Amino acid sequence: MTSVQVDKQHDGSEATQSSGEGYHRSLGARQIQMIAIGGAIGTGLFLGAGKAISKAGPSLILAYAIAGLVIFFIMRALGELLMYRPVSGSFADYAREFVGPFAGFVTGWTYWLFWVVTGITEVTAAATYMTYWWDIPQWLSALVFTVILYGANLISVKLFGELEFWFSMVKVTAIIGMILICAGILTVGFSDAGDTATVANLWNDGGFFPKGIGSTLMTLQIVMFAFLAVELVGVTAGESKDPKTVLPKAINTVPWRIAVFYVGALIMILSVVPWSEFKPGVSPFVAAFEKMGLGIGAAIVNFVVLTAALSSCNSGMYSTGRMLRDLALNGQGPKVLTKLTKNGTPLLGTTVSAALMMVGVWINYQWPGEAFNYVVSFATISGMWAWIMILVCQIRYRAKANRGELPQSEFKAPGAPWTSWFALLFIGMVIVMMAVDEGARISLYCAPLWGLVLGVSYLVLKSRNPEGAAFAKRS
Hints:
about 475 residues, Amino acid/polyamine transporter I
């Protein structure tokens, strides 16, 4: 029996204790909202923005605003699908129904790999951040973090939600605090930066596009990478207490989240510190604190990025277990992965993923060279594949709903399908930019190799389990 076959209800009347897939609906509105907020705030903002600022200057603000609009289109497309049928398999399940069984197979395994790779990098990063305070072996910190997060994910989905709530709270508090401090400097003029802080810094040093529009376009891949994981809220659909109410509210917060935490924060920081003073590899938040003469800033940012890394790894533990179970339920993965604990958590799926994350940490410890970085670069293109599938599925679902073949969603994406087509074209442009950028091109080299592995695996699946390979939509 597949996950899509057992989930018969479409009116949002599922019991609060369990979903049709066997999961417990334990994630409340407070937790879903913070998961949605935290998914859009990560190391891409706290660390990666420094490199992007040095490449594009103040025009990076516009890049984040435009990309944020595209992300909103993607999330509204996802919301339309979730209200049609809220299931934990989410993107893979919709790809299976609206594109075909192979698309579901590719999407499920690719999203699983995305989070495994992300988990590897984030738990390693978290271990590195610990050395700022204590001289302890990196492998030991990585081991402790992985075991703690693994245990939390097995205890209950509610504990996962609580961890994400507080991880997200730290990130949100840090950004709001920075915005308020910068606003105080601009209006009152206190701190070492008070004499030079002015909104005119956004255009005084070479203009708003100091390195040209082309350089701004080249930062779009960095910008889109920062937004990866915003779609995680879709994976929580099968475990939300009231998905028909909670998920739309969480998705509708996307515009103000991006406006405040990305656009707002960058406007404030670049007004206080001229863009030319930012360097690649240095957090813009650390640079801003140093400019203000606040030495404690580096320690604060280190704690925040540690939290962001642990949050990402925690999300990886959660989503990989669910994605593997969805594949297994649909005959596209080992049946043993369908088992749940009494608390409704996918034991084996989470265990396999956590074990692979630990292997990755060991590999990174042994061979911290370019080969590992190449594997990490695959995260961007694999994450965008999920977005592409969301948009394609929404376009096909809307067409069927308009023909009366499927019920209309209660949460229609405004402007769709044109907004979905626009988002697809935008993602295509970002992929072209990645092909042009020598440093990011390796991501595109990895994709065909992964596609070949999946293609061969699917042929093996067809020979051994024709029913699983042929399943494309709900019965």
